Amino acid sequence: MNTDNTAKQHASLFDLDGVPKMSQAIPLALQHVVAMIVGCVTPAIIISGAAGIDTADRVLLIQASLVVSALATLLQLFPIGNKNCFHFVSVLPVILGVSFAYVPSMQAIAEQSGIPAILGAQIVGGVCAIIVGLTIKKIRKFFPPLIAGTVVFTIGLYLYPTAGVDPKSGRRVFITPEGDRTLLMFEKGGWFYEDGTEYAGEFEPVDCGNTLPTWYGGWTNNFKYKGFDLSLFFQFSGGNKIYNGTKASVSDMRYWNNSKDVYKKYWTPERTHAEYPMPIYGDNYSNGSALPISDLVERGDYLRLKNVSLGYTFNTKNWSKAVGISALRLYVQAQNLFVITGYSGMDPETLTNVESATLSGGTDKNTLPQARTYTIGVNLTF
User: Fold this and answer.
1) What radius of gyration, in Å, describes the C-alpha atoms of the chain?
2) For 242-273, how does the pLDDT look when each residue is reduced to its tens digit (9 = 90+)?
3) Which of 193, 188, 195, 355 is nearest to 283 (CA)?
4) What DSSP string describes 199-254?
5) What contacts 308, CB < 8 A, 6 or more positions away?
6) Are 65 and 48 in contact (CB under 8 A)?
7) Potential cystine with 307: which of 53, 122, 233, 275 (Cβ 3.0-4.6 Å)?
8) Partners of 303 in the beta sheet?
């Protein structure tokens, strides 16, 4: 009996109601605590920095995150109500912290409206979560795995509004919150109206489009003729916008190389309708590096030939048994053979996440495209 109990205790580490040995529980507990502290402190630091609060309030916000996480963890472990009947939370040994999934949204709110607006948004979000939890059985059919595994809510690009390059001066045009045109004079350290008056206000990012596709899908075609077989798989997606951060990187006027496209399309007195502003050494604002600008937003629609395979199967019925081959097929295959898109970057399907709340998701920032691969193979059965 003692042997069975010991074996059961050893095996209970991953059981729902298992009680592991102390030698197992202590290292796991320390591991969870360390991970929880990092998860609680880091979002608080990010949000406090975005809100611009002073040091004392930052410390208070961090302490509040730790205290609330501790209380939520205790409630998670020791729920209110009957454990075997109606109760709150899931009764699992999980340390609750601050989710990084909401950091970009909270950072954007903090930059615009401060900490009180975040608290209000959390209250509204909590009420919505309770409603969803109570009705999840009825609405689950509207959220298939593809949607639930991506993002349920729409994510947008929040960028600083710009209006191309001014034909007269060659400067990037920035739009103020009042709708006025201003020109960036990098060498003077500011923005100026077209009459030369310096702009003393601040710019505000605006919604420049949804980063999630509104339509997507694919289709497969299989063709056979005598011994030949052909398989085609097309994939398509669209309705979303992409911030071409790579274009910003390769048009940066600091000490690294720029693309040939900049050399051919930058502003000169003879080339007034230019895509890139007048080159000024050190200017990383006009190109969208220091400030993400709306001029670099592009449509993400594409049609890709994801996979194509061509094969030939030999008729081995009349082959001599001495050969010892019952089936033989030769094939060639290609993946990502081509993509049709209006996006000027390397790949509309390859995106990265960045730290800025205004760019999280929907950003192509110096990422490599999907590899085009070719395969030659043989299917042989003896």
Assistant:
1) 29
2) 888 888 888 888 767 788 888 899 999 999 99
3) 188
4) P-S----EEEEESS-SEEEEEEEEEEETTEEEEEEEEEEES-EEEEHHHHHTT--S
5) 230, 231, 232, 233, 333, 334, 337
6) no
7) 233
8) 236, 340
Closest CA to 374 of 324, 323, 338: 338
pTM of the entire structure?
A: 0.57
Q: What DSSP assignment string belongs to 56-96?
A: HHHHHHHHHHHHHHHHHHHHHHS-SB-TTSSBSS-------
The amino acid present at 21, given as its one-letter code, is K
Output the six-digit token pair for 264: 């051919």
* Cβ pair 168, 268 in contact under 8 A: no
Q: Is the separation of the CB atoms in 83 and 146 below 8 Å?
A: no
In angstroms, the CA 352 to CA 346 distance is: 13
Nearest to 313 by CA among 196, 230, 246, 199: 230
CB-based contacts of 104, cutoff 8 Å, min separation 6: 357, 360, 361
- All residue ranges of the chain with pLDDT < 50 are 1-11, 144-154, 353-360
